Prior knowledge:
The complex is a heterodimer of chains A (265) and B (304). With 265 residues, chain A is an alpha/beta fold. Chain A has helices at 9-12, 55-62, 89-99, 107-110, 117-127, 133-146, 163-175, 193-210, 221-227, 245-250, 255-264, and strands spanning 17-26, 29-39, 44-49, 70-75, 100-103, 181-185, 213-218, 230-235, 238-244. In chain A, the strands form two sheets. In chain A, strands 5-6-7-3-8-9 form a six-stranded mixed beta sheet, with helices on both faces. Chain B is α/β, with parallel strands linked by helices. Chain B folds into two domains: 20-230, 3-Layer(aba) Sandwich (Rossmann fold); 242-295, no CATH class. Helix content of chain B is 27%, strand content 15%. Chain B is built from eight helices and eleven strands. Chain B has helices spanning 3-6, 20-35, 56-65, 83-96, 144-153, 157-170, 199-202, 275-285, and strands spanning 41-42, 72-76, 109-113, 126-130, 181-183, 187-189, 208-213, 218-222, 228-230, 258-262, 268-272. The termini of chain B are far apart. At the A-B interface, helix 3, helix 5 and helix 6 of A face helix 6 of B.
Amino acid sequence: MTLTLDAPRIVETRPLLEVKAVSKSYGPVQAVRNVSAHAYPGEVLGIVGESGSGKSTLLRMMNLEEIPETGSYTLDLPDVSGNLFELDRFARRMLCATKIGIVYQNPHLGLLMKHSSSGNVAERLLVAGERSFATLRQAATEALDASEFPLDRLDAPPIELSGGMQQRVQLAKAIALEPALLLLDEPTTGLDVSVQALVLDTLKRLQQDRQITMVIVSHDLGVIRTLADRVMVMRRGEVVETGLADQIFQDPQHPYTQQLVHAKL
Amino acid sequence: MSLSTLTKPWEAMSYGFLDGSAKRELRRKMLKSVAVPGCQMPYASREVPMARGWGTGGLQVSLTLVNPQTRVKVIDQGADDSVNAASIRRFIARVAGTPTTMDTLEADLIQSRHRIPEEVLRDDQVLVLQVPNPEPLRPVQPNMSIARQMHADADYGRMWLQLYEQIVRSGRVMQGASYPSLVHGRHVMTPSPIPRWDVPKLHMAKHLTILSAGREKRIFAVPPYTRVEPLVFSDVPYKVEDHGNLTCTRSGTTGFFMNEIPQDDSSSAFEVSDSEWGVKTIRAREGEGESRGETWYKDGEMPQ
Lengths: 265, 304
């Protein structure tokens, strides 16, 4: 009897997100140099690095807010094809609204601070073309509920909310249309440790419930360790090391990564 | 041939107050705005002897469009006899030598602030609306550069956010005037602060409407037979003011937009907002003959 083993799932599936050889400079500053990254469906990719290492620029490129000088970007989704950097801005806006969700470090970037929280979530659906009040209301409530936002503050404007709550509103907005890809840019920086833990908890649960592919950028190794399956270490616009999270944390190879891990532990 | 035979004799003022280049600028921008319905065209707004915000935009359009035969009607909140309307009417008559009228049916050009007359306008009439704030996106996008990009992209989702919040807060749409409307399926415009009651009058209207904001230096237009659709949710229908069953205490007319006049005993009396319609109704009642034309609203309802 011959035993046939199934190939591991990860080998069969193609990466959902694939960024190839992107470079971007701001004047004389080379922010990102020849960086490639990929994430499989349902996987959480963590990007760590010091300030100015290009990790946020990379994330903004994944959200199509910045277009690099060279490189390509593909998402393996049913009605998405080709290099996404070449899309016109209409297609880009629609894609960002329906397929990609983003949570910024600074809630002012992602939210209309003086409009209601539920309105902020509903805006996402409005951009995608939803025009029924009842549907908007229900979807906004559901998304806020899923991100563990207290529903009695449903219509409070984010400016009146605490930092942790504001991040939950951003998260609700990001997941309102059930995106295939969720981008998190330092989602817990600036929150105190207990609130940070609660927000991470919510993210973890969402990831398990919905199997969303996430890319999380942080300089905080604790956050990355809690959430990420695979880690990319960036420094001065280049990737110095990639590997499974445990690998990176237990057995860092590159001197910079070793420094980073030891500084933390 | 001498130079004096080629030039016009000296005049204290050009015809219609504005000089030739100002009128040319306005004509060009009016044509552009008619060509792209509802799109705000920037224009070189000139000084007129009136403070910004009092209808300088509308006045410049009127002064450009008139000729000595144009019958001019000017209304302010529906009234022909308010100080602002009377002054503008007198000014146009003085600098352009035009005949004036209060009768909507006789007028060739109607300059208006905040109202559209109750009688149906014909295809040979022009309505000029004074606009204080031409940008419908301002409440949701304070950055005007981004707002212009949003217009270019027809990215109007946020307009519904405004309506959403009003329904959430108050249970209904609270936008009373300047109700944002989609023109010709492309540009969202603010139809100047006319009440919701008047917005359906613009839809597929026979007349040309020009909206001009003098301070903000923007002009836009609704050409004849153009779709003007107020923004609504698919499950929350558009509603005009609840004036269909009110009766005017002075003229006794029913089913038109009313002004509410508070009384000493804290009750309200109502007076028809279109003053000329009230005058005509009183004339008909007193046996001076019927001069009322066809109205947009019939029995307080807008026919579909």
